[in-house]
């Protein structure tokens, strides 16, 4: 691509981040290979696997997920600072990425995280790749924070949801941003008058909360409510936390992208996908691929202009 360094900023968005896989596949099929990859949260996971040459393995893993398998990776932690320790997920990443140091990768890579206490935006560009990924996706209250070099770190989406600024700082002249939350949380508006009366059905649900069900059934219901969205009793705690983070992330992303806009934004259309729909990888990857295809011609044209390839192409066609 000549002297035009291409940056790719992969945003956070939990399960919707599987769409990043489709975007990367389409870009590579078109001969577009980013020189600099910056990722936040799930974007750090996909981006890290890509620069390590493990994107095909990540895709195979994602496509094999079912609801049951997703629940199997959730190692609950009732005494720490997160509902999930994340060790099982870390073990999976370690099977393919153990021993890989970020500075040894063939492409520049940065995972964005947030420091607890100070709110500092931390760019993880050295050290163990798996540790950087874990810190970047450690969602507050869901995953346990990760200690790195004396700092406790969690989800980078709180400070830089779509890290375009990182790509610019590392020398990218053309930046492609991928936002997987754009059409899901950005439609918020003001609803000035809402009745506060509780329905009879809701009252019945509240009364039933005190009933102790058989252990197996109760645990199954709890997991369903917590990690797969709304049931007849409403959203669970983790779902509420995830949706709250999603809304905050969207507002921060819009503000930061307005101040430091990318050259192009790829926005997969994902309103029908929940934040815990990891088991729907095939459809999510295809949505990402379709979104990339919609922008592909413009991306190729702009890159050609910046590398000086456009005049040569025009001369050959004449």
Fraction of residues in helix: 40-55%
Mean pLDDT: 80
Largest sheet data: 8 strands, mixed
Q: How many extended strands?
A: 10
- Compute the CA-based radius of gyration: 21 Å
Describe this structure in words.
- Helix 2 runs antiparallel to helix 6 (129-137).
- The two termini are 23 Å apart.
- The protein contains twelve helices and ten strands.
- It is α/β, with parallel strands linked by helices and 318 residues long.
- The model is unreliable at 196-215 and 311-318 (pLDDT under 50).
- The longest helix is centred in the C-terminal third of the chain and has 27 residues, at 281-307.
- The strands form two sheets. Strands 1, 2, 4, 5, 7, 8, 9 and 10 form an eight-stranded mixed sheet that branches. A two-stranded parallel ribbon has the order 3-6.
What's the structural blueprint in terms of helices and strands?
Blueprint: E1 6-10, H1 19-29, E2 36-40, H2 42-51, H3 55-63, H4 67-72, E3 82-84, H5 87-97, E4 108-115, E5 121-124, H6 129-137, E6 141-143, E7 146-148, E8 151-155, H7 164-169, E9 174-178, H8 200-208, H9 215-227, H10 237-259, E10 264-266, H11 281-307, H12 309-317
């Amino acid at each position: 691509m000549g002297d035009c360094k291409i940056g790719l900023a992969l945003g956070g968005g939990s399960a919707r981040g599987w769409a990043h896989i489709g975007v990367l596949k389409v870009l590579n099929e078109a001969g577009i290979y980013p020189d600099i990859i910056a990722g936040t949260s799930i974007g750090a996971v996909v981006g890290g696997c890509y620069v390590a040459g493990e994107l095909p393995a990540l895709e195979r893993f994602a496509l094999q997920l079912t609801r049951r398998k997703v629940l199997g990776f959730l190692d609950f932690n009732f005494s720490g600072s997160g509902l999930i320790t994340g060790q099982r997920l870390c073990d999976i990443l370690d099977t393919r990425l153990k021993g890989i140091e970020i500075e040894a990768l063939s492409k520049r890579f940065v995972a964005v995280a947030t420091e607890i206490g100070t709110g500092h935006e931390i760019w993880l560009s050295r050290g163990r790749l798996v540790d950087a990924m874990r810190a970047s996706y450690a969602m507050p209250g869901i995953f346990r924070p990760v200690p790195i070099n004396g700092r406790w770190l969690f989800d980078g989406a709180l400070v830089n949801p779509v890290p375009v600024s990182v790509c610019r700082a590392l020398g990218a002249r053309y930046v492609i941003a991928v936002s997987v939350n754009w059409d899901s949380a950005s439609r918020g508006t003001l609803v000035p008058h809402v009745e506060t009366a509780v329905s009879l059905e809701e009252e019945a649900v509240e009364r039933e909360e005190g009933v102790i069900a058989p252990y197996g059934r109760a645990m199954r219901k709890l997991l369903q409510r917590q990690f797969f969205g709304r049931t007849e009793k409403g959203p669970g705690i983790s779902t509420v936390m995830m949706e709250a983070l999603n809304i905050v992330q969207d507002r921060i992303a819009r503000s930061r992208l307005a101040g430091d806009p990318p050259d192009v934004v790829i926005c997969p259309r994902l309103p029908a996908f929940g934040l815990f729909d990891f088991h729907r990888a095939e459809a999510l990857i295809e949505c990402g691929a379709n979104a990339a295809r919609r922008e592909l011609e413009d991306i190729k044209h702009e890159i050609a202009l910046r590398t000086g390839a456009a005049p040569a192409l025009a001369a050959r066609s004449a």
